[in-house]
Each structure stands twice: as structure tokens, then as C-alpha cells.
Amino acid sequence: MRTRQSKNQNKSCSTVDLRQLDENVNFTASDPGHSKDVSHRSPVQETTRSHRIRWTQEDLQELMWCYFYSQKFGSGSESDTFKIWRGRNPNSRKDMTSKKLAAQRRYIMKAQKIENNKLEEIKKNVDSSCSNVIRDNAQIITELNESNHKSKTDTDEQLLTDAEMKSIEERLIEEIKKVKMCPLINRKPLRKIYKNKKATEVLHLIDNTLINVLEKVVDINLTTINEIIYAAGVVATDIILGPRKEARHKGMETKKSTSPIWIQRIEGKIERIRLHISLVSEMKKNNNLKKRTIKKLDHLKRIYKLKTMEDIELTMETLKQKVLLYSQRIRRYKKREQFWRQNKLFESDPKKFYRTIREQNIQNGSSTLNVEKMADFWSNIWEKSHPLNKNSTWMNKEKEAHAWIASSTMSDVRMADLETCLKNTANWKSPGLDRVQNFWIKNFTSTHKYLLVSINKLIMGRQEMPEWITTGKTYLLPKKSGAMEPKDFRPITCLPTMYKIITAIIAEKIYGHLRKNNIFPPEQYGCRKGSYGCKEVLLINKLIMASAKQKRKNLSMAWIDYQKAFDSVPHEWIIEALKIYKVDPNITTFCEKSMKNWCTQLEVQKYSSRKIFIKRGIFQGDSLSPLLFCMSLIPLSRQLNIKDQGYELIPGGRKITHMLYMDDLKIYAKNEEELNKMLRTVQTFSSDINMKFGLENVPE
Question: Among 547, 525, 545, 552, which residue's Cα sits nearest to residue 536?
């Protein structure tokens, strides 16, 4: 009520100011040199015609004069132009709005309804006619803008009541206490919100309140920051969206019917017609009927005028056709709606569109899965570590080849690094067990300096790593339709957003070190910045095939796919690779400590498994894990490139030995003997780090 009253008051105030402005403008229109046909014209007379009024040349020039005037003394916006035009023409075109007027003005300029020299003349007339009242009119416009700004500010301030604003800090402190007492696994998901005036104001107020809350915290760490951000998110969603509605049954949310009213009406008609069909069929059978049924039949006889058996047959068929007609109408609507939604999704997010289609096809062929069976299968892979062959020849050569590299020294993470990392994260990516999305970390900027201090302490080893930050929630996505066996599923782990922020910053540092010292192999197209990935690999492969065909040269190729590559790479070898390539010791220590605490729970059809500790393999859900995997395959690329082997595109040019996209490897050789030699190199490397080939995925 307060907001509406404020708007009305400001609206009336604005009207008075504009009339004063227009009086001044019309008053000075008699000055020498002013155009007779534009600014000194009399207002258009009121008309009673209901049909469309034609725009005369004089009307068009009047509109452009108002537009140029608003540009010179106002903001040039649609609303300013309309206010000036309406003040000068109070009785003309009663149904005109600012949008319509702006559209007409754009049409004038696009269709060149007024000649350019005439437009220039109107502009000059605006300058000359208003020279005597610039100060007065500018003051009026300024007062108008200040009035509008004050109205907007008052409205924004009144989006929340005084009681709500005063209680925010109390609610926040109370919610923080609740979060501290609640186990992490029992947290409820934070609801998604969309930014508007109210949401922006609420987030700003809570962020300002957090400054006082954080200053009172004595020993602040990542856990404390996470609890405070989650509590602030709960308070924000309760204010913006209202209190959370509890589900009627556990695990089931209450949902309202989303069908349009006309569909519900048609469905009601179909139900009534089907009831009539069943009654008419009973009439046709002419069996012993109850009195209540007989009364209904008498009513139907009067409605459909049923006298003979032919009438009954005809009515029966008519009713069936009506059911088909109405059902077809609903199906047509739903098909059209689905088509519209899919088109819209494809335009905004093609990746999500294809994923939705694929998931629908897979879900149609899937059935109930055994959680324990899944947990046993993956625990046999993750929880069993295998020894690394540290005495291998290639490993010693790798150490000697990179002995000259200076160890990277990582300085403290700067605020610019944190802000860049947050900027590149998606707002509503699935969080981990902590339930905190990136949106809340981005918007509660008062926590950033404390978060930065905790990140630096954690990386430098001055703060203990909390257990929850390395605990994931793994979802098993089927690779194909009708997947039932555990091996036919791909594990994707949702990790806490704070862990992903830390690992993203570390990944940036490691990648910079590898590129600076030319360690990252050019044959690896996974995790490579500025690369098109698979597209580049396909184009190069196409070029090689075309060259061999055109020049009639021998070409031997082999495809290699590792079995559960991401889940099998040993932690011991990853740490050893970090040391060989002289990555900063603090980062190496951080990775080593975090790997010891890696664990996850499988989520299978809304059921959770026991906690599984990951002693080999990497997560598939953060920025660092893929880079660590690519690092573990660097020695393989170096071994394949050392000897004089591979396919030569240009005589005397560089030979192409292989291409890698993460774990997918393709080898090129000039003959079969050379190919077998390269395959033995791959086999030796793979056996030394205990990785196996997925022979069932290799094409024959």
C-alpha cells in the first residue's frame, strides 16, 4: 500500500512539472526565428473518432521536436519523450502510450518520413527556441529526474518492511546456530532464486549484516565460512520466496496441476461423455438395471432424443467420435508445447537438450538397480591401491630430462585470482554435501576476504583440511539404454563448491607452470586451453588419412582405450609426476593430503550407499582432476616422440606419432613393424603404472 501511494504521489508531481515545462516551451515559441509549423503549432484538437487517426506531416514533425527536446534537456528515453509530447498535446490520441510513441518515432526515422534537412531544421529550432529558458527547463527536468529517482528509491526501500529489515540480523544469527547443530548430511537444498529488485535488496542487506557477524567470529576457517554462507542463503530464500513448504509425505513434494484451464475443462467433458457412453451401452444391452441407473437413462433419452435402436447406435458412435476429437485436441496441444519447450531449450542450452533426450531414452529401458551391488563393484576399483614400479627405465629418464627445471614457487592467492575464478563458475551448478551453490558465494562478497585467507592457509599447510571438503556425492549415469551392470555406468561426483574453487585456482597455477616450461605435450588435446578438443583431433586425423590416400603412402594405425582410466590411475604416480615436473611443493603437499581424505557416497535412484574411500583414481567433477590425469600421461607422449617414428606429412617435416584426448589414444606409424614397436612402449608404460586396456571398446 505504501509503495502504491508513493508511486501515485510522484506521478502527480511529475505531471505538474511537465505541464510547467511545456508552458515555458510554448511561451518561448513566439521568439524570433522559431519554426511556425512545429513548436508554435496549436495542440491537436480532441477528436471523437474511434478508428485509427492518420499521422499528418505536422504530427510527425511535432513528435520529432519532442524527441529532440527530451534528448537535449532530459535523458532522451521513451518515457521522457512521451511526457513532453503528452504535455503539449493533452487531448490528442488518448490511447497513445510511450511504447507506441517510440515505435512511431523509430518508423519515422527508418522510413525517412521526414527529410534529413527538415530534421536538421527541427534540431536547430529546438536549440534556438529554448535558448531563453534553458536554465528554467533544465532545472525542471532535474527536479523531475530527482523526483523519479526519489520515487524509485522510496519504492525500493519499501520492498521490505521495517520489521523485516530489523529482524534480518537476529534471524541470521539464529539460523547460524541451527546450522552448526545440524549434521552436514541433513542440510536441505537451498532453493533457486532469480534476481529482481527485492532479491537484490535482500542480498545486499544480508551481505552488509554478514560484515558484523564475521567480525565477531574469533577462529574463522572454511567450515565456519561455509556454515555462515549456508545460513545466509536460508534466510535470503525465506524472505524472497517465503517459508519453505513441507512435503505431505517424506520424499514427495506437493505439486499443483499446471495444465491450462481449457485443458482441464476438456478433460472434464471427456469424463462426462465417457460416462454417457457407458450408460448408453447399458441401455443397448437392456439388462436389469437399478432405479438410479434408470433415472439417468431417462435423462439421457431426453437429452439425445433416443427413441429407437438406430438412435442409440448413432448416439453411441457420435459420443465416441467426440471423445476422439477432444483427446486429439489435447494431444496436439501437448505435442506443440513440447516442441516449443525443446526449441527454447535448444536455443539456450544445446548440451542440456541432448542430455535430456539421452536421459529419457535411457530411463525408458532401465529398471531398479541394486545399490549394494554398485557399491561393491566401485569399491573394488577405488579402495584397492596398486604399487608403482619406481625402478622403471622410462621414469628414471623422465627425472633426468626435467632435472634442470626450476621448481615453481606459488605466492599467496590474490583477491583477483579468487574473483576471476568465481566469475568463471556457473551460479547453480550442483553442489556437494554442503548444499552451497556458487551463487551464494558470489553474492555474499563480505565473506571473500575471509575465504581468501582460509584458502591460503589451507594450501600453505597452515590450516587443517576439513573432512567434509573432500567428501563427494557420486551419481552413476548410464552409458547406454538398458544399462544394468555396474561397469555400464559413468561416475560423476558432485563436490563442495569451496573445494572446486580451491582446485580451480591450483589447476590454473599448475597449467601455467607446465606451459611455461613446455612440459605439456602438444599431442594432448584434453585440458588444453584455446583448443577445440575433439574437433582438432578429427581434422588432423582427416588430413593424415587424405594425405596417405593421395600420396599412396603406407599408414598403420592403432586405437587404444584404457579400462576405467580415470578410476584406475594410481595416486602414488600422480604425486610422483608432480614432483618430477617440479610443481610447487605446497601444491604437491596439498594434493597428497586431500587424496588421503578422498571419499564419496554413491547415489543410485534416490538411495545412498555406504561411504567409499578413494585410494586410486580421480574425481570427475572438478577442474584439477582432469589436469592431474593428463600429467600422468606426459611420459607416454615423450616416449612415443623420442625415436624416429610416426607418419610424415611433408618430407623433412615433423612426424606425427600419436594424438591424445584425455585417455583416448591413437597411434600412427609408417608400417606394421613400427606400429608393434610403439604398442609395446604403450604396454610397458601402462603396466608400470597398473592401468589396463579396455579391449571391448577398441574397434576391429
Answer: 525
| Confidence tier at 678 by pLDDT (50, 70, 90) | very high
E-state strands within 339-443:
none
Alpha-carbon radius of gyration of the chain: 37
Q: In angstroms, rounded to a whole number, what is the distance separating the alpha carbons of residues 228 and 234?
A: 10
Read out DSSP for 66-116? HHHHHHHHS---HHHHHHHHHHH-TTS-TT--HHHHHHHHHHHHHHT-S-H
Give the span between the Cα atoms of 174 and 164, in whole angstroms. 15
- Looking at residue 28, its pLDDT comes to 37
Torsion of CA 584, 588, 591, 595, to 10 degrees: 170
Owner of C-alpha cell 547453480? 428
Q: Which residues, including other chains, have CB under 8 Å from residue 553's CB and lie 6 or more apart?
A: 547, 647, 670
Give the range among 13-27, 331-345, 586-600, 664-678 with minimum mean pLDDT.
Answer: 13-27
Tell me if residue 607 falls in helix, strand or coil.
strand
Q: Is 633 helix (H, G, I), strand (E, B) or coil?
A: coil
What pLDDT sits at residue 13?
Answer: 39
Taking only the tens place, the pLDDT of each residue in 69-116 is: 888 777 778 888 888 888 888 888 888 888 888 888 888 888 888 888
> Measured between alpha carbons, how far is 679 from 662 in angstroms, rounded to an integer?
18
3-state secondary structure at position 599: strand
* Cα torsion 59, 65, 69, 75: sign: positive
Cα(345)–Cα(354) distance, integer angstroms: 10
HSE-CB at 403 with a 13 A cutoff on CA atoms is: 6
Encoded amino acid at 643, one letter = K
First to last CA, the chain: 75
- Starting at the edge strand found earlier in the chain, the sheet holding 471-478 runs 489-494, 471-478, 599-604, 607-613
Contacts for 291 with CB less than 8 Å, ≥ 6 apart? none
Confidence of residue 499 (pLDDT cuts 50, 70, 90): very high
Give the largest Cα separation in the chain, rounded.
105
Q: Which of 463, 437, 467 is nearest to 450 (CA)?
A: 463
b/e string for 260-277 if b means 16 or more Cβ within 10 A? eeebeebeeebeebeebb
Q: DSSP string spanning 218-260?
A: SS--HHHHHHHHHHHHHHHHHHHH-SPPPPSBTTB------S-
580 vs 282, residue with greater confidence:
580
CA distances from 232 to 101, 198, 434, 503, 665 (A): 45, 16, 13, 24, 47
Report the half-sphere exposure of 221 (CA within 13 A, side-chain side): 13
330, 378, 557, 562, 689 from 565: Cα distances, Å: 49, 13, 21, 5, 11
Closest Cα partner for 604 from 516, 512, 698, 486?
Answer: 486
Cell numbers of 325, please?
476429437
CB neighbours of residue 534 within 10 Å: 12
How far apart (Å, rounded) are the C-alpha atoms in residues 543 and 649? 9
